[in-house]
Amino acid sequence: MGDQDSASSLPPSSTAITGNPNPEPVIPASLKFLITNIKNLLPHPLTTDNYAIWRTQILQQFSATGYVAHLTGDVSPPLADNQPAYTAWKLVDSTLISALFSTISPSILPYVINAYSASDVWLILERRLQSSCRSRVLQLKNELHHLQMKNLSMQQYLTQVKTIVDNIAASGSKVDPEDIILYTLNGLPAAYNSFKTYIRNSSVLADLDSLYSLLCSEEIYVNQKYSHSLAPR
Q1: What angle do CA 117, 119, 123 make, to 5 degrees?
Q2: Which residues are CB-neighbours of 152 under 8 A, at least 6 positions away?
């Protein structure tokens, strides 16, 4: 009798609550957090231009919430004859697919709309976009190599340099700081030849921030020199 009383005081199991030996699976709290916040965590949807940075951000978020194995395929679905486990896995995977879709631009979505799993979405995007990403990096590096200041102000010119370098980084590559300095100097007009010679022959290589500051100061000097050359004598 005492055993019966103590047993009746235990909290009921989910089966007892529902009266169903195979209760409906519940979306885990970590997954709810992911699907609720993913568009805030990744404000820029996937396009052909930002695949590398999108991929990195998705991996970070899925790793933080414990679902990265669904992307990489390291977790396999349970056998279909284990119906409760398979149903729970399928619920999670389908929800992850929806989360991924919400971060993909309309132009890319048709590639993956018929994917059967989160890992399938991941592989399709990798096959489709990695080569485009490499092509874009080559294009951007070529733009950087041939960029010229021409009639731009120094601030405008340096902003263009930075924009290209940032876009290269967003495409999953990088440019060595020494190469950025070289390309920046190469794009300067002839009025800056003495400055270019000074930087190239300097025993201490300027970092990018210092170079940009020096260039802005040099622009003032060049403009003053040009104004004096035009002044009547």
Answers
A1: 120
A2: 160
